[in-house]
Specification:
The protein is built from 4 helices and 7 strands, in the order βααβββαβαββ. With 160 residues, it is of the alpha+beta class. The chain has a single domain, classed as 3-Layer(aba) Sandwich (Aminopeptidase), CATH 3.40.630.
Length: 160
């Protein structure tokens, strides 16, 4: 699997990956009805470095990396990951997270923090924990899940 920086011509493939996740509204705090233009504008914003995971010419996943805070907090990064439904269970998210941690180290970040991991996203929580992230905070009933109602969100952290 090749993980590379996203290019403008990857927009359609990125949209095909992020759209179902956004529309489901189960794991990200994005407006479920946001337009394609707004969603791509968010994912590909200039404050982020965006990457894609590619295999045999097909883009299977995408992630972004950015500083979590400005000023005195800019040594901690934040990332977001999405994989295509067809790639679920194939190690794409793990590969992207490992790549993002290595890239973050090369950019001088000292830690990575996930600000808002929906607690019911159990696969992601298990994956992040297997990669050394710890739950350092719990935000009670902070996320309104479309099927389950109000559920907790987790803050997860890992030194790099």
């Amino acid at each position: 699997m090749l993980i590379r920086r996203a290019h403008a011509d990857d927009a359609a493939a990125i949209w095909s990956i992020i759209s179902p996740t956004i529309r489901a509204g189960e794991t990200y705090t994005l407006d479920r009805h946001m337009s394609e233009t707004d969603a791509l504008g968010y994912w590909l914003a200039s404050d982020k470095e965006t990457f894609v995971a590619e295999e045999d010419g097909a883009i299977l996943g995408t992630y972004y990396l950015r500083a979590n805070q400005a000023g005195g907090g800019c040594h901690v990064c934040n990332a977001g990951y999405m994989t295509s439904a067809a790639a679920t269970g194939r190690g794409v998210a793990r590969s992207m997270c490992e790549h993002s941690m290595e890239h973050a180290r090369s950019r001088g970040y000292r830690a990575m923090q996930f600000n808002f991991v929906v607690s019911t996203n159990e696969r992601a929580v298990r994956l992040w924990q297997s990669l050394g992230f710890e739950i350092v905070g719990r935000l009670p009933l902070a996320f309104e899940h479309p099927r389950l109602g109000f559920v907790d969100a987790l803050v997860m952290f890992r030194p790099l």
